[in-house]
Amino acid sequence: MSQGEYVAAAYGVVFVALLVYVAIIAAKLARLERETAELAELARTRHADV
Amino acid sequence: MSTSSPSSSTSKSAVPALAALAAALVGIAIAFAFYVAPEDADQGISQRIFYFHVPIALTAYACFGWGAVKGLLLLWRKDERYDLESYVAIHQGTIFGSLTLLTGSIWAKASGGHWWLWSENQLVLFLVLFLFYSAYFMLRFSIEEGPRRANISAVYALFGVVLIPVSFLAIRLAENIIHPTVFTRDGPQMSGVMFLTFCIAWLAMSVLAYALYRLELLGKRLDSNLRELRELLT
Range of A29's domain? Predict the structure, then answer.
């Protein structure tokens, strides 16, 4: 490997790590959105019963 | 018990601005590292790894230190929100710590021909610090959630902070060729433009770490509040 390729690899590692982190956060936000919708539905059902 | 804090709403509005600022600063730092800073006479192009490697390492130290400060506040004020803040800071520190090891290893291979040398105290000490904080998660998740876990985690975070100056000073105390000492008592051993590039990259990494810290904290608090709401509704 040339020195330039090592530099690209070092910066690439940081970029990929950031990308993975953002993907994990996005997946978590999608889960939270799903859970919020479920809870809203549950609250609506409760409200209709009362 | 809710883990939301009075500052939660302000955090929400600050996160997009922080993320945008971090993205802009990282972009500027990369532009400076590749197009503005001159090529190093000794190491050539591989020296450009320095502009991200060192700021990432300093950010990792700062995150571990921040986690210890929050741990101390938890033990002092007995406020549960500090437990989550300490945990998230250490999590960020571990991410930046792993990036320090990876970028450092690549830099060492490019400039010295070795991925890793066990004879190098500063490398091993950083690895010890990283493993110490990695074990924090094993400890934390082996204890049931509650004040006991919060207190034990805070004490562990405080113990780890002792390793930070040891790891930091080891780079200065060890005389070797693998890990260069750029900051000496005579000041930074680099040109003004190189130092400016380093400062921009350091600022970029610090803002990025803070943005990620706030984002993760926001997600964890939202998760906790939803769990509480679910318990109330079911």
Answer: 19-50
Q: Is A27 on the interface with B (CB under 8 A)?
A: no
What is the total count of domains within chain A?
A: 1
Q: How far apart are CA A36 and CA A22, in angstroms?
A: 21
* Alpha-carbon distances, residue B35 vs B31, B38, B51, B106 (angstroms): 6, 8, 13, 21
CA distance A50 to B28: 58
Q: Is B230 on the interface with A (CB under 8 A)?
A: yes
Give contacts of A4 with chain B, Cβ < 8 Å.
45
Test the B interface: residue of A5, A7, A25, A41 with most B CBs within 10 Å:
A7
Mean pLDDT by 10 residues, chain B (234 residues): 48 80 95 90 86 94 95 92 95 96 92 84 86 94 92 93 78 60 67 90 95 92 88 82
Domain contains A8: no
* Nearest residue of B to residue A26, measured between CA atoms: B219
What residues in B contact A35, CB-CB < 8 Å?
226, 230
Determine contact, residues B220/B27, Cβ cutoff 8 Å: no
User: DSSP states of chain A as a string?
Assistant: --HHHHHHHHHHHHHHHHHHHHHHHHHHHHHHHHHHHHHHHHHHHHHHH-
Mutation choice for A interface testing from B42, B47, B49 by most A CBs within 10 A: B49
